Structure formats: structure tokens, C-alpha cells
């Protein structure tokens, strides 16, 4: 990816937006009483205000527009008015938090960016408002120096590797939000089933250790699917994926075609299907959410996180137990899934970083943005624990990962004390990829990538139902070679070598 340069920022670039990409906020409602600080928060130094004193009234108050995906809450304006009183006291800034429906976010942000709109902060990721695409059109401002000066509190709270994913040619272009970043495989199991068949969760060392339990479900339970498989655990134990169709061996660093690396996982999928562990209609089912909700799966295989079984139990209305499998791993681009960038056309980049730093580190402001106003939208259950008021018209709590550091969020029902500390510990103690910070630029192999995607769609889930798995794998690998997978692997290898040489 070509080297980015800092664009000249001119005040008054546009006097009005060409497109209403970040919608204007309505008139603020009457304010309600703000939530009181907990005892632990009351003594904390105000983030972003080194003097810890209110800003001078005579200074002009700058409004920072921040665009994020989500569902705007009915009492959004009421909460924002109250939050802004606190922000103004600390930074003499105001926040215009524009919450845009997720299905519209990509198009709205692309239009706003190309039209030169002057919003300030924006959500970006590898799956929504693509970071790479924005970088290709110079849509984001380099913020290395700004973060060093105004974002030190954010940086101090992070693992030292986290910022790498948002760097291009050594320059920082976004701030990754903090949540579960390390990836570790695990299972949640219906507690009644585990007890009925004497399955010891502590015995789980590899994914195959679940098989004797699944055999019992197949033999003895009707109307129950043994396992809901949501991840490729066998593959992920040995490989990480780079550029979609290249796989890197975690131990040796060797790059091989994905179609080769996934072969053993395909064999396991077929074996489990033949044994009855996988539902018969797996090749055609597109939405199993109703079956999940009805607790029709004895086991769910997915990415593990601390407190997983407690959340699952609370959501499902039935007790579940959990076990992690294999070790935790931070991939080359882990953390790119949710970040915040500064718009290249922002008229107030310094203030934008100051505000981001405040929201990222100030628990009182962060939690009011999440839960609203005490007594109106939530009630305090105990220290750091809240519950939503029935029929409340504001609750952004489940979206903490969209706007900052989730580890500062209050706990909701079903979340256990120490959950955020345990998650932070998992992130910081995980094995970090040797390719951390490397991103693949697919511009030289776009034709091959399109052809490979077509083959992948053709063979998706076919490994489960085939009667001859070896013939299926041979045919699949041959089609992937014809589509250009070896060319992609060569390009990945070339870029990795260049990246290593430049380090």
C-alpha cells in the first residue's frame, strides 16, 4: 500500500455538506439527573484534562461529529445533552454522536468521504467501512503525533501490539477499540446434558475430546442436535489465514494454499457428519437461530471468551458450562474488527483525538453513553453493576465495543465480576503472531481473488455430505489451483518478505 502523506487541513473547507451522511442531531430534550460516580471513579483524574479543572467559559466550544453504526435510541438527544455538560466541563468540547443504521453505514460513509464532508471521527473495520478501502483513497488522517500528544491515556491502557493493526508504513491511522481480541477455541455445553452423561469439562484438551460426549447425545437424545459448529477449530489450532486464501503455519511460518491447509478440517467435518454429530440439513440451512434459541444444541463450538457460559445462560434461560480449547492467539490483523479513525477532512483533528481519548478512558462519560441516565434508563444494582429499566427508551450497553474500551463498561445482568479484567488478561497473555502488523494488499491479484471466491462458494459445506471426502478434497484443490490460488500464495510470500525487510 502506498505511503500516505498528511493532507493540508484548511478551516472552512466546506460551509455545508454535499450529502447528509452524518445526520444532524435534533433539538435536545430537557436534561435529567446524571449518574453519580462510583467510589472508585470519584477519585480518578479527569482524562484529557491534565489540570483537572473546568475549561474557561470564554473559550469557544467546538463540536466534534462522530459517526458510528447502530440503532439510534429514542432518548438519544436527552442523553447526549447531559453527557455534553460533562464533556464541556472537562474539555470545552461537545459531542455530536451520529448513530447510523448498520445496513446504510458503508454507503453513507463512502459518500460523505468522497464529498469532502468535515465530520471528525468514524468507525472503521475490515467488515464495515473498510479500513483498507479508506486508506486506498486517503480518507483517514495520520494521527501518530496527535495520539502521542493527546491520546496517551488510551495507549497506556492497551497491549503494546494493539496499535500495529492500524499502522500503514509506520504511520498510525486509527485507534482499535478494546474488547476480546485474542482468539481461542472453546465450547459451551448444556449443563443438564453434561451432568447426565458425566462429561468433565476440565478434560477438554483438544477439540476431539468432545467426541465421546457427542456419541452419547447421538445414541440417547432425540430432537437434539449434538453440536453447533461455528468455527474451524482444527484448522485454527495450526494456521492463521492471510489474504483469505493463504494459510500461515503458526509454528513454522510457512505459507501454503488455504485449500491445502483446510484439508484435515474438511476430513473432520465429514467424519462428524457421518457420525451424526452435525445436523443432516447442514448443507442447506442458512439460519439456525431459532434452534439455538430453543436450546436444541447440546454443544456450541465457537470462539471462547471469559464469562461466556454466564452470558449464554442468561440469554438462553438454561444453564450452560464452558471449556476453552487450545491456546489464545493474536493474529496478524486481530483488532481490526472495530476501530475509530479521524476523517482526513476534519477541521478539528486535535480536538477529535482529545475527545476520543476522553471517551476511551473516562468511565463516567463512557457508561452514560452506553446506559443513559440513572433512574430513567437504568438502575444501579451494586458497584459497577446496572440493570436496564423495563421499557426504557435508551440502552446502548451491548454496543460498547463500537465506541472505545469495553473494559470500562458497567456489568449487565448475566455478566460476572472480573469479566473485563479476565478478558484483558487473556488478550495480553496470548501468543502474538510473528506477522503482527502485516496486511496483505490484494490489488495485484484481484482477478484471482474473484475467481477463488466463486470456487469457495461452489464448494461451501460440501465436505459434510460428500460420500468420498478424499475425492471431494482433490477436486476442490484442483479447482482452487485453476482459479489462481498459487499465484495468491506467491504474492503473499513476496509481500511478507518485503515487510520483513522493511522492519
Describe the structure.
- The protein is of the alpha/beta class.
- The chain is built from 20 helices and 17 strands.
- It has helices at residues 39-42, 76-91, 102-114, 131-136, 144-150, 152-156, 191-196, 211-220, 233-236, 258-261, 263-274, 289-293, 308-316, 349-361, 363-371, 419-429, 446-459, 462-465, 469-483, 485-502, and strands at 62-69, 93-100, 121-124, 167-168, 171-172, 174-176, 183-190, 225-229, 239-242, 246-249, 255-257, 297-303, 320-330, 339-342, 378-382, 385-388, 431-432.
- It has a 5-stranded mixed β-sheet. It has a 5-stranded mixed β-sheet with strand order 8-12-7-13-17.
- Helix 17 runs antiparallel to helix 19 (469-483).
- The longest helix is centred in the C-terminal third of the chain and has 18 residues, at 485-502.
- The two termini are 15 Å apart.
SSE diagram, text form:
Layout: H1 39-42, E1 62-69, H2 76-91, E2 93-100, H3 102-114, E3 121-124, H4 131-136, H5 144-150, H6 152-156, E4 167-168, E5 171-172, E6 174-176, E7 183-190, H7 191-196, H8 211-220, E8 225-229, H9 233-236, E9 239-242, E10 246-249, E11 255-257, H10 258-261, H11 263-274, H12 289-293, E12 297-303, H13 308-316, E13 320-330, E14 339-342, H14 349-361, H15 363-371, E15 378-382, E16 385-388, H16 419-429, E17 431-432, H17 446-459, H18 462-465, H19 469-483, H20 485-502
Parallel strand pairs: 1-2, 1-3, 8-12, 13-17
Antiparallel strand pairs: 3-14, 4-5, 6-14, 7-12, 7-13, 9-10, 10-11, 15-16
Helix pairs in contact: 17-19
Amino acid at each position: 500500500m502506498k505511503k500516505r502523506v498528511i493532507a493540508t487541513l484548511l478551516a472552512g473547507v466546506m460551509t455545508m455538506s454535499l450529502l447528509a451522511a452524518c445526520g444532524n442531531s435534533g433539538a435536545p430534550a430537557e436534561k435529567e439527573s446524571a449518574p453519580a460516580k462510583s467510589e472508585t471513579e470519584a477519585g480518578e483524574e479527569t482524562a484529557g484534562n491534565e489540570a483537572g479543572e473546568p475549561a474557561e467559559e470564554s473559550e469557544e466550544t467546538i463540536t466534534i461529529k462522530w459517526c458510528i453504526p447502530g440503532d439510534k435510541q429514542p432518548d438519544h438527544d436527552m442523553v447526549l445533552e447531559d453527557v455534553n455538560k460533562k464533556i464541556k466541563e472537562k474539555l470545552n468540547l461537545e459531542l455530536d454522536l451520529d448513530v447510523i443504521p448498520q445496513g446504510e453505514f458503508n454507503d453513507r460513509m463512502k459518500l460523505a468521504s468522497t464529498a469532502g464532508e468535515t465530520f471528525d471521527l468514524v468507525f472503521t473495520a475490515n467488515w464495515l467501512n473498510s479500513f483498507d478501502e479508506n486508506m486506498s483513497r486517503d480518507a483517514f488522517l495520520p494521527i501518530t503525533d496527535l495520539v502521542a500528544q493527546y491520546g496517551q491515556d488510551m495507549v497506556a491502557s492497551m497491549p503494546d501490539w494493539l496499535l500495529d493493526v492500524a499502522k500503514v508504513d509506520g504511520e498510525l491511522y486509527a485507534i482499535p477499540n478494546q474488547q476480546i481480541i485474542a482468539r481461542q477455541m472453546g465450547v459451551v455445553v448444556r449443563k443438564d446434558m453434561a451432568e447426565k452423561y458425566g462429561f468433565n469439562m476440565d478434560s477438554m484438551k483438544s477439540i476431539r475430546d468432545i467426541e465421546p460426549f457427542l456419541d452419547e447425545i447421538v445414541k440417547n437424545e432425540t430432537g437434539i442436535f449434538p453440536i453447533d459448529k461455528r468455527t474451524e477449530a482444527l484448522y485454527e489450532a495450526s494456521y492463521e489465514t492471510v489474504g483469505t486464501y493463504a494459510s500461515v503455519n503458526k509454528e513454522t511460518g510457512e505459507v501454503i494454499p488455504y485449500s491445502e491447509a483446510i484439508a484435515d478440517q474438511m476430513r473432520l467435518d465429514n467424519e462428524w457428519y457421518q457420525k451424526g454429530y452435525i445436523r443432516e440439513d447442514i448443507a442447506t440451512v442458512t439460519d439456525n437461530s431459532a434452534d439455538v434459541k430453543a436450546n436444541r444444541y447440546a454443544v456450541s463450538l465457537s470462539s471462547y471468551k471469559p464469562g461466556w457460559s454466564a452470558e449464554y445462560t442468561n440469554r438462553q434461560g438454561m444453564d450452560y458450562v464452558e471449556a476453552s480449547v487450545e491456546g489464545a492467539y493474536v493474529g496478524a490483523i486481530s483488532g481490526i474488527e472495530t476501530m475509530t479513525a479521524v476523517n482526513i477532512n476534519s477541521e478539528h483533528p486535535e480536538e477529535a483525538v482529545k475527545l476520543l481519548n476522553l471517551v476511551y478512558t473516562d468511565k463516567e462519560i463512557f457508561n452514560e453513553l452506553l446506559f443513559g441516565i440513572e433512574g430513567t434508563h437504568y438502575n444501579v444494582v451494586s458497584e459497577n453493576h446496572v440493570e436496564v429499566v423495563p421499557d426504557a427508551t435508551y440502552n446502548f450497553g451491548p454496543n460498547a465495543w463500537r465506541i472505545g474500551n469495553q473494559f470500562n463498561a458497567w456489568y449487565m445482568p448475566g455478566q460476572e465480576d472480573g469479566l473485563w479484567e479476565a478478558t484483558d488478561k487473556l488478550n495480553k497473555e496470548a501468543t502474538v503472531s510473528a506477522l503482527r502488523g502485516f496486511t496483505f494488499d490484494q490489488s495485484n491479484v484481484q482477478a484471482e481473488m474473484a475467481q477463488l471466491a466463486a470456487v469457495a462458494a461452489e464448494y461451501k459445506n460440501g465436505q459434510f455430505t460428500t460420500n468420498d471426502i478424499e475425492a471431494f478434497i482433490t477436486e476442490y484443490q484442483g479447482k482452487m489451483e485453476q482459479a489462481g490460488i498459487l499465484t495468491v500464495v506467491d504474492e503473499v510470500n513476496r509481500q511478507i518478505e518485503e515487510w520483513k525487510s522493511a522492519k
